[in-house]
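hey so u asked for the seq, here:
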Amino acid sequence: MSAPARTFTVRNVQLVRALFAAVAAAMITFSPDHSAAIGLSVFSGFAIATALVLALAAWLVLPAGERWPYATLAAVGLLAGMAGGIPAWRTNDAFFAVVVAWGLASGAIELIAGLRARRAGEQTARDSITVGAFGLLLGVALLAIPAGLAQPYAIKDAGEFLLTGIILGVGMFGGYAAIVAVFLGIAGLTPQRASRVAAPENERSASEIAPGGER
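ran it, structure tokens below
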């Protein structure tokens, strides 16, 4: 008798992660305030919620020897989310420090896990590689933004405005969350190919046939 199919799979994890990223992107997009306090509060909720899902999935989805990517990502996300959740630390410098560290660390972990999974022939390897690359790009992009940037500009018939580094940084995180939400949502809804399942049966059938066509 074949083992029962798992009710919670990698595809389910991707969809839940996409949901949390979409919520974070929507909160940033529709908020008129792109301050460090708002940015870190949204990031904190996103990081902690994602970390809890990854920690749970590490035990429910992956075999014992393959849990390290989810477990490590969960630890990094939980630490970054807790740091961002401290009200006294919600400054411009803290936003860049926390989100840059999280982006580079989580991106590197997921990228390495994806590359190792690709060598093993796993179908979700490309998804991990792509999301890991997005995280690294977020970290690098935030590093390139001066935290103390303050650039005034004017729009005709609209008035004068001030573009700051924290506005760019929080907006960059919102853009990252939106891209990840769309990508993981598509990945989670894409059905797995049946070729990997059917391949062992085809190989077994071929091995039972003699070179001359006789069984």
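Residues 1-5, 194-215 have pLDDT under 50 and may be disordered. The longest helix spans residues 92-119.
lmk if thats what u needed
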